[in-house]
Amino acid sequence: MNRIPQVIRHAVDKSITITPEQPAFSLIWLHGLGDSSEGFYEYFMHPKSPVYIGGRIRLLQAPLRPVTINSGYPFNSWYDIKALNKTSGKEEDLYSVQEVKESAEIIDKEVQSEAQFWKSQPNKELIHPYHRIYVGGFSQGCAMSLYYGLQCANPIAGLVGFSGYLFESVKLTNLDKTSVLLNHGEVDSMIGEGFAKHSYSRLLKHPNVKYHSIPDLDHTVDLDQLIKLTKWMKTRQL
After folding, report:
1. pLDDT for 13-66, tens place per residue?
2. What is the pTM of this model?
3. Pick from 193, 139, 89: which is nearest to 201 by CA?
4. pLDDT surpassing 50 at residue 1
5. How many CB atoms are closer than 10 A to CB 68?
6. Which DSSP string do the residues of 59-121 spell out, in sequence order?
7. Which residues of 122-140 are buried (b: 16+ CB within 10 A; e: fewer)?
8. What does the DSSP assignment read for 177-207?
9. Exposure pattern of 38-53 as b/e (b: 16+ CB <10 Å)?
10. Which domains can be identified in the chain, with CATH numbers?
């Protein structure tokens, strides 16, 4: 049985690193609007989480910024959201394009840091460092993960999206090289599954994409999703 993983809370950026005794891959995770790194801490400490198959988890925290759909009040947010559940329109009418780019830079910094971590490990020559790295998230964290991972300069192992969507502007440059797991609740009252699947329409027929529709699930996470995530990541490690 694996020992209790090492947990480090970073004071400067408020991120959390969970490292198992024998790490095999990294998952960089982005929370949803108004949440924090702590919001997913207990979730990823669950015995069914990827931590217990060798997942080194980096829980990031979004900057505090005004959010239009919340009357302009500041929340932890990867970008300003101006409208929800709209499938078309000018990008700037839906979200802050500039803040999306800024958050993508935050993700890239973390990916480069994890790549350096893997370059420093024993048997580093067996697997390319970027092929050990996954990026995922919930809601707008999902949207940011897909934005980054489908078009980043160095393709990574995989992307994970819970209860989110795909921006229309995202180029699918890395889809042939990067696996994608998408989960969405059938009764999501915040981001309807119909809207989400419409945004994913360019992805869903690709063999590298796995989509799960979760019965009776609203805009939240549950144990079933965590189990599906861990099983998917385990098959990727074989």
Report:
1. 999 999 999 999 999 999 999 999 999 999 999 999 999 999 999 999 999 999
2. 0.95
3. 193
4. no
5. 13
6. EE-PPEEE-GGGTT-EEE-SS-B--SS--SS-HHHHB-HHHHHHHHHHHHHHHHHHHHHHHTS
7. eeeeeebbbbbbbbbbbbb
8. TSEEEEEEETT-SSS-HHHHHHHTTTTTTST
9. ebbeebbeeebbbbbb
10. 6-237 (3.40.50.1820)
pLDDT at 125: 62
Instruction: Please state the separation of Cα 152 from the chain's center in Å.
Output: 14
- What b/e readout covers 17-26, taking b as 16+ CB neighbours within 10 angstroms? bbbbeebbbb
Count the residues in the chain: 238
Strands 64-66 and 209-214: unpaired
Which amino acid is located at 82 in the chain? K
- Among candidate residues 212, 222, 201, 146, the one with its CA nearest the CA of residue 179: 146
Q: Which residues contact 130 (CB under 8 A, 6 or more apart)?
A: 111, 115, 154, 155, 156, 157
Do residues 38 and 16 touch, judged by C-beta distance below 8 A? yes
Residue type, 169: S
For 110, the token pair is: 């973390």
Question: Residue 25: in which H helix or E strand, if any?
Answer: strand 25-30
pLDDT one-digit tens code per residue, 67-87: 999 999 999 999 999 987 665
